[in-house]
Amino acid sequence: MIRVNCDTSKFMTTSGRLTPIAILLFAAINAQAKATDFSGSWTIDLRKPEEKARKAECGSAGFELRQNGNRVTGSHYMATVDCGQVNEGGAGTVQGSVSGNQAVLLVTSNRNGAVVKGVATLKNGTLYWEAEEEVKVGDPPGDDLILSQGMLKR
Description:
Elements: H1 20-35, E1 40-45, H2 49-53, E2 58-68, E3 71-81, E4 86-87, E5 94-99, E6 102-108, E7 115-123, E8 126-136, E9 149-153
Antiparallel strand pairs: 1-2, 2-3, 3-4, 3-5, 5-6, 6-7, 7-8, 8-9
Organism: Massilia eburnea
Keywords: Signal
Protein name: DUF3617 family protein
């Protein structure tokens, strides 16, 4: 919860009610506070329309995140279509910090130990993920199976 300390008398009408501007301001502050909660299960379906039509298994990625203050922890997963390659992530494979509607996350692959740094942005109930750089190369290189970018939904 965000608490704002201010002299509310500056936002009152002569009849003791909040002005319309004040109501909108406080509503925007409250909405922003709610919008920045990264906690939850975020998923994306990576299958092409024809793969969905044939009901192909797997072909998805996601994050399971828990936010506490400005810290984010959790896990991730990614599986290619028909489950040919799977990265189950696991507890503690996502660590990060929140500033406003963005979180900088470090994502560790349980396939090869690679660590990717990326930015998650919350906007209108959608988590926009963009991997920015590989912080630690895995062994073998290139086998990390971490989502590079996408729009994830709860």
